[in-house]
Structure formats: structure tokens, C-alpha cells
Amino acid sequence: MEAKKQRIEQLVEQLNKASAAYYNGQDEIMSNYEWDAMFDELVTLEKETGYIMAESPTQNAGFEEDGSGEKEAHEYPALSLAKTKQISELQDWAGKRPIWLSWKLDGLTLVLTYDGGKLTKILTRGNGTIGTNITFLKGAISGFPQKIKYKGHLVVRGEAAISYTDFALINDMIEDDDEKYANPRNLASGTLNLDDPEEVKNRHVKFHAFTLVHLDEEMRSWGARMQFLEEQGFNVVDREATDAGRLPEAIERWTKKVESGQMDVPVDGLVICYDDTDYAASGSVTGHHATRAGFAFKWQDESVETKLDYIEWSCAVSTISPVAVFEPVQIEGTTVSRASLCNLSEIERLGIGKECTLEVIKANKIIPKCIAVKDAVGEVEIPKECPVCHAPTEIRISKNSGTKTLHCTNPDCTAKNVKKFTRFVSKWGMDIDGLSIQTMLKFINEGYIHEFADIYHLKDHFDVISQMEGFGEKSVNNMDKSIEKSRNVHPVNFIFALCIPLIGTDAGKKIVGSIGFEAFLKRMENQEGFEDIDGIGAERSNSILAWYAKESNRMSLAHLLEELSIEHIEPKDTSEGTCVGMTFVITGDVHHYKNRDEFKAYVESQGGKVAGSVSGKTSYLVNNDVESNSSKNRKAKDLGIPIISEDEFVAQFVR
After folding, report:
1. For position 546, what pLDDT does the model report?
2. Taken in order 336, 342, 348, 354, is the CA torsion positive or negative?
3. Does the pTM exceed 0.70?
4. Is residue 283 predicted with pLDDT exceeding 80?
5. Pick from 310, 315, 364, 314: which is nearest to 337 by CA?
6. Would you give the end-to-end CA distance of the chain in angstroms?
7. Whole-Å CA distances, 236 to 157, 158, 310, 490
8. Tens of pLDDT along 590-649?
9. Could you tell me if 50 and 382 are in contact, meaning their C-beta atoms sit under 8 angstroms apart?
10. Distance between CA 429 and CA 478 in Å, rounded?
11. CA 197 remoteness from chain centre
């Protein structure tokens, strides 16, 4: 008995430590698979002994987040759902009542409150009773409206999540290994702890409403309530009406969506709930579960044993990461032959040898993951040179986490400049589809890409590329078409794609609009400078000249010009434009123009400037909600700056 109590205490400590990291975006201590196994063991031991600690994760709905936000009590406690891996338990719970099936999203739960048709508060779930107020991020998270037609008191609960696509892109662009994230859920949690709304917005966090907690009107159907939320403008979780008899077939269909890779949003299970919300609310509370609020279904992770073939080392940004390549096995209906090992510390933790047997799962039915090792023989050979540039490598140990990672010592290694390649092919650059950051890293590590111009010679490798995992004849043909299309490019896009420090699309427009592209090239060659161009200044001018002074950049530019046709654009005479000498700040939604970028382009074409914030230099603040009490409106009034609507702007400044 005493031994079981000690094990309970040990499990509670380990699980809570892992939860603290999980809920606060820190380094992942253990996988969901390991956490679930330990949690199930804890539940069993608690039932056997009756010994339940107050801090046990079986008794708590979540974990209090770190961060500087103000803590507030929830109007309605955000209790967690009971979980099972047995469909029969779900059927027993459903009984003969109509139910709904939906996704159990793997993100961070948020609670939104509306009054008088306006969003008034956003709280994180926290420990279920007290959350953190992050209302200041309301403009940085998508998936919910700022204003709704309904004017009563409304409380909505949902999951803030980051897609696998955005997760991969963001993580690959983070140079500091201490700041990389283990999974999309880890990234979402860390993102909502940030204080900078602009940085949060750039990470594409999206809200998925999964229940309407309160509205003043009578509406007993959960399905009707979700439909109501959609009509109000919320992004609402996918759902299907069903019953106990049809539930197994529905779960099988939904599971196949995950297994086939149709889900870009991370999910870690399914949820059923009663359509009758009054009945659902009438249940009791046991531990941290509301017995009728809903029931979560978690998949039985299928683990498979396989033999390690070798470890592949891939250089990305500043890290050389290990990938286990093993004998192909069938897991969850698909063939798997590779799994990331993250870093050197993970190799040590698992005890991987030069030869060994791996136990592999697909975490959340998606990501192959090694969870255990046996029969290890020999030690893993750590590369002494970079697989891309062959410079010496070095092992670094994080001061914060103690994590060991392998790095290339060459500051000019092509793989370290993957950000530049991402910018080069982006929409604002050469606009080449089919070349994601992961794809380019693959080509860089294979030796196909060393400089920008090499992208236009990828066709030489298409026979090999079409045989690679994740590629095929169709994807290669589409890539080829996109590359060929990009050979004809607007000069502003080309200047942006060159990745000259401090020179973005705005600077490119000013340069091309003022002197044209041919003069831009000539001035760089003659080291003449660009300070005479309005809006460029000494710092940007010096940056351009310093960039061109580097031989590798001159060679890269020369090689690109051999591959491309730059559209000829005549410099614009804006001396008589309607906005000459004026600075505008544009805020809120627009309706006359397609978007704010088009609005900005018009102002600049007429000799004006567009700034991001109101200052003493602002001529006009354009806001269709002229009477709003926004910070920009308040500042404009304090400074005596006119606030005009878009229609007033058009009447005054559009010819």
C-alpha cells in the first residue's frame, strides 16, 4: 500500500511538471502518449488506494499559465471532459439521446464574452476557475468577430490553434534552438503568452468555437446554438449529428480524415455532447469533470517495432537535426519510414544506438514519433562536418534547458540562409508556388540549391525529385510551371526578393517609382547612393550599397539577371498628385478599395505617404468608424488631427 502511495506522489509530480511545460509553451518534457499512459496509471492507483492528492491532475481542469496578464475568475467554470479510448463507453453515455460529434482540437482554450454586440473580454482557460485576461490580443487572433448582431450577454468557449503548416514554417524560421516549439499546441500556448499583438498576429492563431456557454435567449439545442454562432460570424468547429447506434461508423469516418492527412489543424481526439443543453447542464461535477457536459474520445495509439537503418542529419537555419530512418512499417493505415529525433538530447534520452529496435507511433494520428528503444548496440556517430557546406560542427548546450544540439560553424552556410530563400519565393518576391521552406531545405541538403539562380535549374534534378517521398510527377510539373512563370517579374518584386537589409516592398516602390529599375542597377554599380529618393534616407541607401559591395551578392544578382526578364516600368511623376506632402494613417475596414494595401498604393501613387501610427506628422486619420473610441482616434483628437471616413477621402483626394 505504501509503495502505491509513493508511486502516486511520483506520478503527480511528473505529470504536473509536464503540464506546466505543456500549458506555458516550454520545452516538451514528455509526449502525449507517455502522459496518457502515466495518467491512466494514476487513475488506476487512485481507485485502488483511495489516496487522491489535492494537486493530482485528476482533480484539476488545467494548469495556471505563466505570463504577465491579469488573472480573472471565469463567469462559468471551464471544466474539463472525462476521457475514454473505448467507443462502447461513449455509446453507454449517449444512451438514447441525440448527440453531436466534433473534433477535440489540440490548442489553447479561450473564453470570449460579448455585451451590447461588442467583444468585451478574452480569458484563457487557466486552471478552469481562474484564467488570464488577454483581451489586448483581440485583433491578433482570427476566427471570431469584434462585433456581432446579437446585443445580449454572450459567452463562447473555443480552441485557439495553429495549423501544422504554419507551425512548420514558424519553427523553421526560429534561429534560437531554445525558442523552438515541440508541436503546434506548444507553439499556440507560447504565442498567447507574448505581449506583442503584432508578433501574435504573424503566427496565425485561429479561434474555433466549440460551445456557446451562455446567451440570454432560450435555445436548448446545442446544434442550433452552434448554427447561431456561425451566423454571428464565428469560425465554428466541424460537427455531425448522430446517436449511439451510428456513433462507431461516424468515429471511423472522422478518424480516417485524420489518418489520411486531411486535417491541417491539430486534433488529439473527438468529443460527443448532448443536443439537449438543459439536460447536459443538469449533471453533477465529479473531480474536475461535469458529468453531462460532454465526453472526449482519445485514439488508441498504435505502436509498431522496427529496425533503425541509419540516422539522417539535416541542416536548417542554425541547427543540424537528426532524423531516424528505419525499415518501413504500417502505422494507422499508412507506411512510415522516418521520424524526427529533434536533437542530441532526445537521442540520449531514448538510448538510441548505431543499431537498435525502435518503437514508433503516429502522435495525434499524424506525426511519426519514436517513443522507446531496445536492443541498442554501439553509439550514434555525431557528424563532424555539416552535411550542406562540410564545415566543422560543434555541440552546444542550452543554458536554459540543458538541451544538446548540433550546429554548423560556417556563418555563410546555405542552409543558414533559408530565410532568404523563403523571402525570395514568397508572394511579395518571385511568387513561386510549391517551394515551401521544408522543400527548399530538402533541396539545399541534397546540394541542388546554393544560390537563388539555382532554383531556375531545378529541372535538371526533376527525375530524382519526382521519386522522393512527398513528391511525384504532378507536383514536380506544377513546380516547374510556377518557376517558369516567375521568370517574368515586376522590378519591385525582384528588389524585395534580393533580400537587401532594410529594403522591402515600400522601399522598392519608392526606388522604381522615382528612378526606375535600370537606374537602380547603375547606381549600385557606381556606388552613387539613393538618399535623394524620398523615403529612402541615408541608412537604407548605405544598406543597398553595402549589400552590392559584397562579391557574393553581385555574383548572385548577375546570375539571376541571366535567368529573368524584368518588366520595364517608367518612373512616376507624382509632383502633381492629390496627396503630395501629406501623411495618412488608415485604420479599420475599408469598402471603396479592395483592402488597405490597395488604399495605400493609391495614396503613394498620388505622392502621399501612409504611416502605421498617428503622430504629429499625420495629416489625416482615415477610419470608417469616425466616432469610435479607439486608441488611434483618441490620439488623433488629442493632437487635433482630422479624422475622415473613406468616402470623405475619396471625395476629397480621388480625381
Report:
1. 93
2. positive
3. no
4. no
5. 310
6. 87
7. 10, 8, 44, 40
8. 888 888 878 887 888 788 888 878 888 899 999 988 888 888 888 999 999 999 999 999
9. no
10. 18
11. 14
Q: What angle do CA 356, 357, 361 make, to 5 degrees?
A: 135
Taking the C-alpha atoms of residue 403 and residue 396, their distance in angstroms, rounded to an integer, is: 8
Closest by CA to 408, choosing from 320, 322, 530, is 320
What are the start-end ranges of the H helices in 76-172?
Answer: 87-94, 164-172
540 Cβ contact list (under 8 Å, min separation 6)? 502, 503, 507, 530
Q: Which residue among the candidates 4, 83, 104, 369 is catalytic per the annotation?
A: 104
C-alpha cell at 428: 511579395
DSSP 262-318: ---S-EEEEEEEESBHHHHHTS-EETTEETTT-EEE---PPPEEEEEEEEEEEEETT
What is Dmax (Cα atoms) for the chain? 89
Residue at grid coordinates 530565410: 419
The answer to whether 104 is a known catalytic residue is yes
Count of positions (residues) in the chain: 655
Q: What is the DSSP string of 530-587?
A: -TTSTTTHHHHHHHHHHHHHSHHHHHHHHHHHHH-EEPP-PPP--TT-TTTT-EEEEE
Type of residue numbered 440: M
